[in-house]
Structure formats: C-alpha cells, structure tokens
C-alpha cells in the first residue's frame, strides 16, 4: 500500500476498529490500535499519528471518549443506533411474517454488526424464535424495490399474482392473468406488506400483498393513474379490514365496554361512539363489509353486535347460519 493511500485510509480503519471492538465497557489502547492496523491491513502507524487521527474523528463528530494515561484508551460510545433501538429493529424483523427465515437472519446479522463485537452476538440471540410462521417468497425484496421505483417514477407496473391450492402448491390466479397497477404507497397491515394503488382490472383503488406477487413486477413506460383528489390513505386503512377490496358502508355496532380497546385499535380514537349504559356503547364507522369484517365481529362472541344497516346485519346472520349448518354432523 502506497504511503499516500495508507495515510488516507488509516483513519477509516481506526474508526472501523473502534466500531467493532469498543463500546461503553470496552476500549482500545494506542498500542493495540497500532498492532491491529499492522496485523489486519499492513499499515504502520506511530503513536502521534493515531492520536492525530482520533482527534480528526472527534472533530468530525465521532463520539470517542479518550482516557489519557501512559497508554491512552479510546472508546466509541455513541453510534447511529443505540442498543435498545437495534433490539427494537431486530424484533420488528423477526416478527415480520412476510420476510423469509433466510432473509430475516441476513437482516439480523447486518443490524447486529452496527454494534460492537461484544454486543453483536447478544443481539443475534435476542429474538430468535423457533417455529415462527414465515413467508416463502424469496423475491419479496426485489418486488418491494420495484414497487418503490414505480411510485417514485409515477409509472405503472405489471405482475402476476398467486395463491396456494389444496396441495399447498403455488398457482397463478386467473390462469396467469397479468395485473396492471399504479402503486401509490406501500403499507404495513396485519403482519404483511401491501401495495396500494389503482388497479386497471378493478377499475379503482385496490391493494395486493407484496409476498403474493409471483415475481418482480415489470416497470411499464405508461404513466401511473393519478391519485384521486379525495383519496385519504388513513381513512382507507381504517375502513378496509386487512386490505380486502369490498364495498364500504356506514355501520352501527353495539359493543360491550370490554371491547373498547379493540374498537380503538381498529377504528382509531376519533371513531364516533355513544354511551348506552354502563356496559354498552354504540359505534358508527365506515367499514369494508367483507368476510374479514364479519370474522372480526364473530370473534367477540356476542360482545360486538351489528345494528345497522339491515343488509349488513342480514348478511352476517346468514353467514352465522351457514356456519352452524356446516358444523352439524352428517
């Protein structure tokens, strides 16, 4: 390595050593830094150059704590992410069903590498649940990247969508039909990532699970459909349960007081409510009245009741009857 290149790169290697081998509880001395520079990269350094390089790092904002003595000690104590923040990010990665086990491990390793060596292994073990349900679409990163590119460039994309058949085999929907789509946003909902935008097939706003897109979408030259002026993303997410593309209706529900947390989780704090008595309150909300909505109501075992409109209430009662009939022994 030439002396010019060596002088230019030495400071970066010193910073790398501090990142990897020091933290609030571990330090490197001047002599150790000199030895590691020589062993790892063949760089010769003197005490004065190490001191000067670290002073330069501090001047540029690196939070290096120096303990002055016959052998100066150096510790990098502040990083881009603190340990609690890294744990939070790793937990989010590990909890994401749509990320495959392989990609989850890769991301966890990369996040852990932002800490010192002494903390890195602890972070890798922090949240490593066995048997957690995982997605199987290894292309999900490339799919998401293409969707983000289309959003940025305001272009349409084209893709195929799949489902699992009775044998757990992937099958293309509608015989491999191509969906033409103008993506507006990527949203996280119900443990999964969704692309939300205008679907040419549906003739309106629709959403698709990213991990159900068969392969990386094709970026078309055609400009995306402009977002409707009255489209409100927050309202869409509150009314469309689990991103199901169904009709939205204003529904009145009678709810037991024990369900208030769940109601707020689903509709938000601004949802319209009216106290009936000490045990019951009514909710008026705009919801997508599809199967997922009915499943949500059913899950409260009578503590959430549909009052109106009559067509929604009737459809729910019909589904209850179908479920009861299906449960009868033959």
Summarize model confidence as the mean pLDDT. 85
Please outline the major beta sheet. Answer: 5 strands, antiparallel
- Structural class, judged by helices and strands? alpha+beta
- What distance separates the N and C termini? 82 Å
Give the ordered list of helices and strands. Answer: HEHHEEHHHHEEEEEEEHEHEEHEH
Instruction: Please mark out the parts with pLDDT under 50 across 5 or more consecutive residues, or reply none.
Output: none
Total beta strand runs = 14
In DSSP terms (H or I, runs of 4 or more residues), the helix count works out at: 11
Alpha-carbon Rg, integer: 28 Å
- Tertiary shape: elongated
Strand arrangement across the biggest beta sheet: 9-8-7-4-10
Proportion of residues in β-strands = 15-25%
Please indicate the count of domains.
Answer: 4
Indicate the percent of residues in helices.
40-55%
């Amino acid at each position: 390595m030439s002396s010019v290149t060596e002088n230019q790169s030495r400071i970066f290697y010193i910073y790398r050593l501090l990142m990897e081998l020091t933290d609030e509880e571990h330090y490197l001395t001047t002599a150790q830094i000199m030895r590691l520079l020589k062993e790892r990269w063949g760089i010769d350094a003197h005490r004065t150059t190490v001191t000067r390089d670290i002073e330069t790092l501090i001047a540029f904002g690196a939070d290096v704590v120096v303990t002055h003595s016959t052998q100066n000690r150096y510790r990098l104590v502040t990083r881009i992410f603190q340990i609690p923040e890294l744990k939070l990010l790793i937990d989010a990665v590990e909890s994401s069903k749509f990320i495959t086990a392989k990609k989850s491990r890769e991301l966890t390793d990369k996040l852990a590498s932002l800490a010192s060596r002494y903390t890195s292994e602890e972070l890798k073990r922090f949240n490593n649940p066995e048997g957690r349900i995982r997605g199987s679409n290894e292309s999900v990163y490339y799919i998401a990247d293409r969707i983000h590119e289309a959003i940025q460039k305001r272009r349409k994309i084209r893709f195929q969508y799949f489902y699992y058949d009775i044998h757990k085999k992937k099958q293309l929907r509608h015989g491999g039909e191509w969906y033409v789509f103008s993506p507006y946003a990527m949203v996280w909902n119900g443990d999964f990532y969704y692309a939300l935008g205008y679907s040419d097939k549906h003739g309106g706003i629709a959403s698709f699970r990213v991990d159900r897109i068969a392969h990386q979408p094709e970026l078309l030259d055609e400009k995306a459909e402009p977002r409707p002026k009255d489209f409100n993303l927050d309202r869409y997410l509150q009314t469309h349960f689990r991103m199901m593309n169904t009709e939205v209706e204003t529904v009145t529900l009678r709810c037991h007081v024990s369900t208030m947390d769940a109601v707020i989780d689903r509709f938000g704090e601004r949802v319209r409510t009216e106290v009936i008595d000490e045990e019951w309150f009514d909710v008026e909300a705009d919801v997508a009245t599809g199967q997922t909505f009915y499943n949500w109501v059913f899950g409260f075992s009578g503590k959430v009741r549909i009052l109106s409109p009559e067509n929604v209430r009737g459809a729910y009662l019909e589904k209850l009857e179908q479920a009861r009939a299906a449960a009868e022994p033959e």
